[in-house]
């Protein structure tokens, strides 16, 4: 079970790091989907980019020997992506970014679940 946790969490770290940094730097391809979901561009740096990046760091810290930090980070990312999916649904936005939000939510839930199971 630890191997599954490790694989899912490493993937979640990589995905959230990339996505968080892209949001922090207002990567042009993500702007249209954010607009369609009704998210102001000013939110890309904080809270969106910051929370994704800090979540990725927390997951990594969990992998490096502080498991409670990893579980807390996975719980935080789960909450973040539940809110992201809800925002897309409210806006009627089913663009590729909605699909990405579902994928990120799945990774966060998997990391949280497996993290709790191996403790």
Would you spell out the secondary-structure blueprint of this structure?
Layout: H1 2-24, H2 31-36, H3 44-63, H4 67-90, H5 96-117
Helix pairs in contact: 1-3, 1-5, 3-4, 4-5
Please name the defining characteristics of this protein.
119 residues, elongated, transmembrane helix, DoxX, Butyryl-CoA Dehydrogenase, subunit A, domain 3, mainly alpha, membrane, transmembrane, 80% helix
Write a structural description.
It holds the Pfam family DoxX_2. Keywords: Membrane, Transmembrane, Transmembrane helix. The chain has 119 residues and is mostly helical. It has one domain: Butyryl-CoA Dehydrogenase, subunit A, domain 3. The mean pLDDT is 97.
């Amino acid at each position: 079970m630890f191997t599954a946790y490790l694989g899912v969490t490493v993937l979640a770290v990589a995905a959230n790091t990339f996505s968080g940094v892209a949001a922090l730097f207002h990567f042009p391809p993500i702007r249209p989907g954010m607009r369609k979901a009704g998210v102001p561009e000013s939110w890309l740096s904080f809270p969106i980019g910051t929370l994704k990046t800090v979540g990725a760091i927390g997951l990594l810290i969990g992998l490096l020997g502080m498991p409670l930090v990893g579980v807390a980070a996975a719980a935080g990312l789960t909450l973040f992506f539940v809110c992201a999916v809800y925002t897309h649904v409210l806006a009627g936005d089913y663009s590729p970014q909605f699909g990405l939000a579902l994928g990120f939510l799945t990774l966060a839930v998997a990391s949280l679940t497996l993290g709790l199971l191996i403790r």
